[in-house]
Amino acid sequence: MKLISYILLLAFGILLIFATSELPSRGHPENPINRDTSIAGTPGAAAHYIRNAEKETATPNMVTAILADYRGYDTLGETTVIFCAGIVVFLILRKQKDGSKI
Amino acid sequence: MIWQIELIIYILLVASAVLALRVKDLLASVVVLSVYSFGSAFLFAVLGAVDVGFTEAVVGAGITGVLFLAALYHTTRKSKD
Amino acid sequence: MVQKSNSIIVALVSRFMVPFIQLFAMYVIAHGHYSPGGGFQGGALLGASILLLRLTVGEQPSNLVFHTRYGTQMSGFGVFIYAAVGVAAMIGGGLYLDYANLPIAGIEPAKLRSLGILFVEIGVGIGVMATMIAIFDDLARGHFHD
User: Fold this and answer.
1) Domain range for residue C82?
2) Radius of gyration (Cα) for chain B, nearest Å?
3) Is the dihedral of CA C54, C57, C58, C61 positive or negative?
4) What pLDDT does residue A21 have?
5) Distance between CA B57 and CA B42 in Å, rounded?
């Protein structure tokens, strides 16, 4: 049984490495994510951010500008998820001093 | 970027991941998991995603280790299997 | 429930290190416009500095820095700051979270968006710091005094 699991694991690893070899090379300007227009012909978002982010938000760090300004809802949801994690731990694990649950 | 450095980090990642599963002492397992997080943070930094690497170094290696440590107080230190 | 460290070296060195960690965390939050970093990373660093105090010098002295009872309140306050900045932009006449319409007079829209990003990062930092501390306190102590 152990041998079968190792063989499966090895096959899965080989499959992943084989799939990785077909990925586009990193940072190449002809990648779809880096092109000015997408495959369907619509204008791409990345080029707009690279051209206009510093001018529109007066923030040289483009990552911060995108995270907190252009994708503000995303970061709000992220913060809410962290807050919810804290609330869930509070509700499940915290006990009062006399031992009674809240 | 430099494939020799990336190869060393990949070997370190696989070795620390296997070691974190195999080791019997759970406290040592938490420490090895922190090593794994630092390795992946360094890999992110080499790949150019410095923000993600920063987050991984702070959260994965700092906060997660402390939270696992706090969880260890509720259970035993030795792994059963 | 968590025992503090008995080593005098560990306690002294961590007490010496904590102000510098907190200073660096505030630098990461405030300088997120120009360098890698931001609210999440800085908040996690602030939380980690408090957790270091909790682990090394014990519960009572670290309560002087950040009391246990404030953990959950502060995490809610951080999320509230974020949402309030969005509502303030609505009051100024724009859409939700559109920082260019924040009701502050005399600043051009681009600078206003930069300012809005700073407010939001401060909110995220407070929320993340307090949530980390609250999770650790609930997990490690299991008792809630007063």
Assistant:
1) 8-141
2) 14
3) negative
4) 87
5) 8
**Tens digit of each residue's pLDDT (9 = 90 or more) over B29-68:** 999 999 999 999 999 998 888 999 999 999 988 899 988 8
Determine the Cα angle at C57 with ends C56 and C60, to 5°: 130
Pairwise CA distance, residues C111 & A58, whole Å: 6
Residues linked to residue A101 through DSSP beta bridges, in sequence order: A95
Q: CB–CB of C78 and A80 under 8 A? A: no
Average pLDDT in the B4-21 region?
Answer: 91
Using a CB-CB distance cutoff of 8 angstroms, which residues of chain C are in contact with residue A69? Answer: 99, 113, 116-117
Restricting to A residues 16-35, those with a Cβ less than 8 Å away from any Cβ of C are none
If one counts the domains in chain B, the total is 1
Domain holding B27, by residue range, is 3-72
Residue A82 corresponds to which amino acid? Answer: I
Q: Write down the ipTM of this complex.
A: 0.86
Closest by Cβ to C2, choosing from B51, B67, B73: B73
- Report the distance separating Cα B63 and Cα A94, nearest Å: 20
Element (H, E) at B27: helix B26-47
Q: Are A55 and C111 in contact (CB under 8 A)?
A: no
Beta bridge partners of A95: A101
Q: Is position C114 within any domain?
A: yes
The stretches of chain C forming alpha helices (DSSP H) are 8-30, 39-56, 59-65, 71-91, 109-141
